[in-house]
């Protein structure tokens, strides 16, 4: 009788007869990266021993709210760790370093990996574009199918294929409805702009979830994740996101209410740490401690202050591990970007702009990185130069990246920085170069983006006009026939919220290939 127990942000323990599988653990004592933020509710009474006593652990990607070294180090020596096989080596190397002598096994996309001799298996479903190294897990145990989407933004076609692989039925589908994203919370928007961007992002995320569930019709759909909360005084001001009913990062209770309203025939349930659902009977057992928690609790401020006090020693230890850098910071910064600039000519052509880094604190400065198609250069900032992006952070955090203690994306999702864009257009390739920083991963993106077949086209209508467009989004391959919203002369891809002008094909809010639309 398979039972699913929910233990955290994206944590699911699947107890199916003789094996245990823990998907994306997240219950380390420090909460999350740099002691900066933690999603709540917390449930410290949970007995972790049965969850750690696992034969298999599956980890989807390297974000530290999914891949937690503290958990990996406490697993039994027999535990085998399953990860997706991504084009670059970074995730594999990071897992291997934390795993000690435990076996790490990479699973190829859509490969059925046997978990026992009774027909239980797991597979990984990575995002279609290799720009993002995120993946869902499809688990079939005792005849029950569970699709755990983690942070992966699956296309409708991928979700339907997963259901087919599971025998035409998904008993449980868990979907992230609030991402750990630095946009818009870390951007320098006015209050009005922040509200507008936040609401658009929130609704886009919920619509994407609604679309996937409509396409797959699972027996039970479970929204999870969000919003973040911040426990360190340096980023405490970001807790304003918790006070915004229309903010970008809604909590699971709010997400469930919205989804129930917009897809009322679907069964929706949100879970808290320690809750369990029996997939044979559908019965839900609520954890008595978690049941006392509500995201809408008026005493939230006191709750967070107690939470921060409990984590104070751990936060102080993390901060102490990031001392101020020496006077050679600019030289190491220059060498770091010289290395990045030599990894991919394709990415330099796609970035093609100047990024200004404002580095505060000892030995910081204001430095411009020119990502030119002719080559990358680094220089002290000049008032005569107008940057397209501006990234501001403290020298101690930049030093962590340069020394390899963390990756660029770790810094981004720590929220210990601010950003500004002029014009306000997202550059996916800039973020991709920073977060991957290795040639195999970048080459895989180039091969994907330059090798797409755009011959299959569809007709869309808006305001009496009709347009011939490619069926698949030029950014990351979403099926626009089912994964897009058309309004006001634009088509909005729900996968990543890219918006294209139907008359010109131009992407309006990000650097992306032209849609090649044709008015009819």
Automatic annotation (TrEMBL):
InterPro entries: RibonucZ/Hydroxyglut_hydro (IPR036866), Rieske_2Fe-2S (IPR017941), Rieske_2Fe-2S_sf (IPR036922), UPF0173_UPF0282_UlaG_hydrolase (IPR050114). GO terms for biological process: N-acetylneuraminate metabolic process. SUPFAM superfamilies: ISP domain, Metallo-hydrolase/oxidoreductase. One of its GO terms (molecular function) is metal ion binding. Transmembrane segments: none annotated. Residues 453-520 form the Rieske domain. It comes from the Bacteria. It holds the Pfam family Rieske. Keywords: 2Fe-2S, Iron, Iron-sulfur, Metal-binding. This is UDP-MurNAc hydroxylase.
């Amino acid at each position: 009788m398979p039972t699913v127990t929910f233990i955290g942000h994206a944590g699911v323990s699947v107890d199916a007869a003789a094996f245990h599988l823990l998907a994306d653990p997240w219950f380390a004592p420090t909460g999350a990266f740099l002691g900066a933020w933690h999603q709540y509710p917390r449930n410290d009474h949970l007995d972790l021993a049965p969850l750690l006593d696992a034969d298999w652990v599956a980890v989807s990607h390297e974000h530290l709210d999914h891949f937690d070294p503290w958990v990996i180090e406490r697993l039994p020596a027999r535990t085998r760790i399953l990860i997706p096989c991504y084009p670059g080596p970074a995730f594999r190397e990071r897992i291997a370093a934390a795993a000690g002598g435990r076996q790490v096994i990479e699973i190829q996309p859509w490969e059925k990996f046997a978990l026992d001799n009774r027909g239980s298996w797991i597979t990984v479903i990575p995002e279609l574009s290799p720009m993002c190294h995120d993946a869902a897990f499809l688990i079939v145990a005792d005849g029950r199918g569970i699709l755990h989407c983690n942070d992966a933004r699956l296309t409708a076609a991928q979700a339907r294929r997963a259901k087919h692989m599971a025998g035409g039925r998904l008993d449980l589908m868990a979907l992230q409805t609030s991402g750990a994203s630095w946009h818009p919370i870390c951007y320098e928007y006015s209050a009005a702009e922040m509200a507008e961007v936040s609401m658009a992002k929130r609704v886009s995320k919920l619509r994407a979830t609604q679309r996937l569930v409509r396409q797959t019709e699972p027996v039970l759909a479970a929204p999870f994740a969000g919003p973040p909360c911040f426990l360190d005084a340096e980023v405490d001001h970001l807790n304003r996101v918790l006070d915004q009913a229309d903010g970008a990062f809604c909590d699971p209770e709010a997400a469930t209410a919205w989804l129930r309203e917009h897809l009322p025939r679907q069964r929706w349930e949100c879970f808290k740490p320690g809750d369990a659902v029996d997939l044979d009977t559908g019965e839900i057992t609520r954890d008595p401690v978690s049941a006392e928690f509500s995201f809408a609790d008026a005493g939230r401020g006191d709750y967070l202050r107690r939470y921060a006090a409990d984590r104070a020693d751990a936060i102080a230890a993390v901060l102490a591990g990031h001392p101020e850098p020496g006077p050679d910071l600019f030289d190491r910064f220059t060498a770091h970007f010289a290395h990045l600039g030599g990894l991919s000519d394709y990415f330099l052509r796609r970035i093609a702009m100047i990024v200004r880094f404002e580095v505060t604190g000892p030995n910081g400065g204001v430095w411009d990185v020119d990502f030119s198609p002719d080559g990358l250069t680094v220089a002290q900032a000049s008032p005569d130069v107008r940057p397209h992006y501006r990234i501001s952070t403290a020298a101690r955090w930049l030093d962590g990246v340069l020394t390899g203690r963390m990756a660029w994306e770790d810094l981004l999702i720590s929220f210990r920085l601010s950003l500004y864009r002029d014009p306000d257009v997202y550059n996916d390739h800039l973020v991709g170069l920073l977060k991957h920083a290795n040639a195999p991963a970048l080459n895989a993106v180039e091969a994907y983006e330059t090798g797409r077949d755009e011959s299959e086209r569809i007709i869309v209508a808006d305001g009496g006009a009709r347009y011939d467009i490619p069926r698949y989004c030029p950014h990351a391959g979403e099926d626009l026939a089912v994964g897009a919203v058309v309004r006001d002369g634009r088509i909005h891809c729900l996968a990543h919220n890219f918006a294209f002008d139907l008359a010109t094909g131009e992407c309006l809010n990000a650097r992306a290939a032209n849609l090649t639309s044709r008015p009819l």
